[in-house]
Amino acid sequence: MTVRPNIANAGAPTTVENADVTVVGGAGHVGIPLVLALAEAGLRVNINDLNKDVLDTLEGGRLPFIEDGADSVLSKALTNKRLAFTHSSDRISTRGPVIITIGTPIDEFLNPVRKVVQDCIDALLPSLADGQLVVLRSTVFPGTTEWLAGYLQGKGRKLKVAFCPERVVQGNGLRELRGMPQIVSGTTPEAEQEAAKLFERITPEVVVLSPIEAEFAKLFANAYRYIEFAATNEFYLIAKSAGVDYQRVLTAMKHNYPRLQGMPRAGFAAGPCLLKDTMQLGAFARNQFALGHSALLINEGLVLHVVEDLKRRYDLANSTIGLLGMAFKAESDDIRSSLSYKFKKVLNGQVREVLTTDPLVTTDSELRPLDDVIAKSDVLILCAPHAAYRQADFKGKPVFDIWGHLDGANVIR
Ligand SMILES: NC(=O)c1ccc[n+]([C@@H]2O[C@H](COP(=O)([O-])OP(=O)(O)OC[C@H]3O[C@@H](n4cnc5c(N)ncnc54)[C@H](O)[C@@H]3O)[C@@H](O)[C@H]2O)c1
User: Fold this and answer.
1) Residue with CA nearest ligand 1 atom 28
2) What pTM did the predictor assign?
3) How many Å lie between the centroid of ligand 1 and the Cα of residue 245?
4) Is 64 in the pocket of ligand 1 (CB under 6 A)?
5) Strands 160-163 and 182-186, how do they pair?
6) What is the full DSSP assignment across 360-404?
7) Which of 37, 111, 149, 389 could form an S-S bond across to 202 if both were Cys, CB 3.0 to 4.6 Å?
8) 390 contacts: CB under 8 Å, gap ≥ 6
């Protein structure tokens, strides 16, 4: 049987000139699910990203990282010619909104780097048409949206400015976009209305706030999550100091008890957003964000606690340590800000050798097959609790598992 792509809705190919919307940073973790959701809603999308390699990957019909349910949507968007791929800042469509989803890092002082937003806008400005809507979707320092509106006005430009934060969980963005309310804010009623109209095409509900409220909503949500992880991690440390298995306590606490259903288990809380955004809020609070900074001490310090525990139990200098799971969280292939690499760094030089493995990560040439790591290691540490490790045969080797993910006589919690 010959299978032919469905080109009934294909129409003319999407170009910079006819695109309905541009997503700047559209080949990133936030950009791709958004682009696909917009294309799925029938819009022609200009994916603008400086990373040409990732654009080529997408154009070839492949996703550069794990995004649940996205393969078929990408394939359909390509078949229907809904996507244009551009990699320079002067290739911006003037017909519709421009959504910015670039990374917004913190610097070595744990302060936000507003310059990345300014540099991005400066590069786009000559290509933007007056009257166009610019939507900030990256997570930004409170005040950035109003600052941007003033900055553009100061340059004599009449652009509409909105802030519509991304709140999806990485790896499941497309599904969450379809089901979650979208917070929308604009610096003018026109900007707010146009942004709301845009997001109503892809989300079931729009919740309107002022720009500073929306900026806080995003940062509070991420900081709260980071603090939740710190709370459970500190409980783990307290239980452990008493020789008590925290996972048993947690399971009993949550059993049919409605108020604790959302309480996370202990684990390494990392990744590109939670710490960064907690520190953005800390910077806004003039470094007086007591809970946020305490959360950092606990979550980042957990690695050192485990290493100290290892030292008490084993002759580390003569041991090979195997790290299981280098992604920053389970079922992810993303190693950005993964605490697994903090383990690697801290242990290197203290132990005979550190070996690393991960069934999903494809971006680290030092990774080895799981069996090899198990065979050569004296002690294993479960860094990212991928489901695959539940089935693994650890050959009786001790495995440190603070997540409560594994069972067995060799598992140390
Ligand atoms: N990763 C998440 O799950 C998540 C969730 C919610 C919000 N956020 C926020 O979204 C933003 C983006 O995060 P991400 O994880 O997608 O980052 P990312 O690094 O995966 O993607 C950013 C993309 O922007 C591109 N880029 C950078 N500067 C550019 C420019 N000037 N012009 C065109 N392209 C440019 C990069 O090449 C990259 O592809 C951040 O502010 C982050 O805090 C992330």
Assistant:
1) 102
2) 0.95
3) 39
4) no
5) antiparallel
6) S--S-TT---HHHHHHH-SEEEE-S--GGGGG---TT--EE-TTS
7) 37
8) 405, 406
pLDDT digits (tens, 9 = 90+) for 116-160: 999 999 999 999 999 999 999 999 999 999 999 999 999 999 999
Nearest to 211 by CA among 154, 274, 137, 280: 137
- 266: which 2 tokens? 């202990």
Of ligand 1's listed atoms, the one at least distance from the Cα of 104 is 41
DSSP letter (8 states) at residue 258: G
Distance from chain centroid for Cα 206: 22
For residue 24, which atom of ligand 1 is closest to its CA? 33
Rounded Cα distance between 124 and 121, Å, is: 5
Nearest to 184 by CA among 158, 213, 160: 213
Burial of 158 (0-12, 13-18, 19+ CB in 10 A): exposed
CA atoms of 97 and 185, how far apart (whole Å): 14
Identify the residue whose tokens are 């949507």.
Answer: 73
8 A C-beta contact, residue 331 and residue 385: no
Q: What is the pLDDT of residue 1?
A: 35
Q: Residue 168 is encoded by which pair of tokens? A: 């999806």
Cβ(273) to ligand 1 under 6 A?
A: yes
For residue 219, what are its two tokens?
A: 């940062």
pLDDT tens per residue across span 181-217: 999 999 999 999 999 999 999 999 999 999 999 999 9
In ligand 1, the atom with minimum distance to the C-alpha of 140 is 41
Q: In what order do the strands lie in the sheet with 379-382?
A: 353-357, 320-324, 379-382, 399-400, 411-412
Strands (E), 25-168: 45-48, 83-86, 98-100, 133-136, 160-163
Distance 103 CA to ligand 1 centre (A): 4
Q: How far is the CA of 27 from the centre of ligand 1 (A)?
A: 8
* Residues 103 and 31: beta-carbon distance below 8 Å: no
**Distance, CA 138 to ligand 1 centroid (Å)?**
7
Which residue from 35, 101, 116, 219 has its CB within 8 A of the most atoms of ligand 1, so it is best to mutate?
A: 101
Residue 258: count other Cβ atoms within 10 Å of its Cβ.
7
What the block records as the tokens of 105 is 């890092």
Residue 372, both tokens? 């090899």
